[in-house]
């Protein structure tokens, strides 16, 4: 009698242990969901840049477009596609004074003043362009 009731207790205890193990494993599986959902806590994409930009391409000894009209605060970027070095140099003043740009090189300038800014290429003075900055 006593032996049988002891066995019963042991069996019951084992059953409870296994049942609680099963529950614990189930909980472990559930824990992975909040862990994986925290992975969409990635860095947010940066806000779109509100500053206006314009690109002038230098190709075949030509600034293209030769004349651009922009609003104050616009950043203009020149990109040299030629295999020959060019500059972006103000005809007068120092608003634009790039170094020699090799192929693929760029020069950027932000225009914060209203006005007309004619420029040329120092090695090739026949290459000319104009930036018109409006309010
Ligand atoms: Cu040039």
**Strand runs, count:** 8
Given the structure, what is the number of helices? 1
What would CATH call the class of the largest domain?
Answer: Mainly Beta
What is the CATH architecture descriptor of the largest domain?
Answer: Sandwich
Poorly predicted runs: 26-38
CATH superfamily caption of the largest domain: Cupredoxins -  blue copper proteins
Strand order of the largest sheet: 2-1-4-6
Over all CA atoms, what is the radius of gyration?
36 Å
Q: Key terms for this structure?
A:
135 residues; alpha/beta; Immunoglobulin-like; 2 domains; four-stranded mixed beta sheet; 27% helix; binds copper (II) ion
Please describe what this structure looks like.
Helices cover 27% and strands 30% of the residues. The protein is an alpha/beta fold. It has two domains: 2-40; 53-134, Cupredoxins -  blue copper proteins (Immunoglobulin-like, Sandwich). The strands form two sheets. A four-stranded mixed sheet has the order 2-1-4-6, with no helix packed on it. The chain is globular and about 50 Å long. The chain starts with a helix and ends with a strand. The structure holds copper (II) ion (CU).
